[in-house]
Amino acid sequence: MENCLFCKIIAGEIPAKKVYEDDLMVAIEDIAPKAPLHLLLIPKRHFSNCLDMAEQDETTVGHLFRVAGQLATERGLSEGGFRLVQNNGADAGQTVFHLHIHLLAGRELQWPPG
Ligand code: 5GP
Ligand code: ZN
User: Fold this and answer.
1) What start-end ranges are recorded for coiled-coil regions in this protein (predicted)?
2) Does the complex come out with an ipTM higher than 0.90?
């Protein structure tokens, strides 16, 4: 997808601190972290958010969640906990319209979020 920031990061056209990659996805450090640990889990196939998902994307989204658990466990978060967030549309605060899951941890996270 032209002019998509995350497609450019996946293609290596824009640098990012990549912490994980496989055939379906990458995980990178957020450029403006909202918690001591703030990763973004991004499918390689472009779709804007859950409103734009095709049936073929279901497996990938399940994979994103499983890898999120794996990355959290590797970082010692399985006991204390962590948060996964996925914003859909401007009112929810989505600013990059290529689906991604935020993994946040390392501080007390308020619920409900603001
Ligand atoms: P959204 O608001 O769409 O749910 O999340 C987009 C996230 O992408 C934000 O947390 C923002 O800080 C992050 N972000 C924006 N531009 C860049 C960038 O160029 N590199 C990285 N690594 N993260 C970015
Ligand atoms: Zn994209």
Assistant:
1) none
2) yes
Domains of the chain: 5-89+101-105 (3.30.428.10)
Q: Go through the chain and tell me how many residues it has.
A: 114
Which residues 6+ apart lie within 8 Å of 57 measured at CB?
43, 45, 47
The pLDDT tens digits of the residues spanning 10-24 come to 999 999 999 999 999
Q: pTM score, two decimals?
A: 0.98
Tokens of 108: 């007390």
Q: Residue 10 CA: which ligand is closest?
A: 2
Q: How far apart, in whole angstroms, are the C-alpha atoms of residue 97 and residue 110? A: 25
Cis peptide before 112 (omega within 30 of 0): yes
Catalytic residue among 38, 63, 98, 100: 100
Q: Which of 95, 97, 101, 103 to mutate to test the pocket of ligand 1 (most atoms within 8 A of CB)?
A: 95
Distance CA 82, CA 105 (A): 5
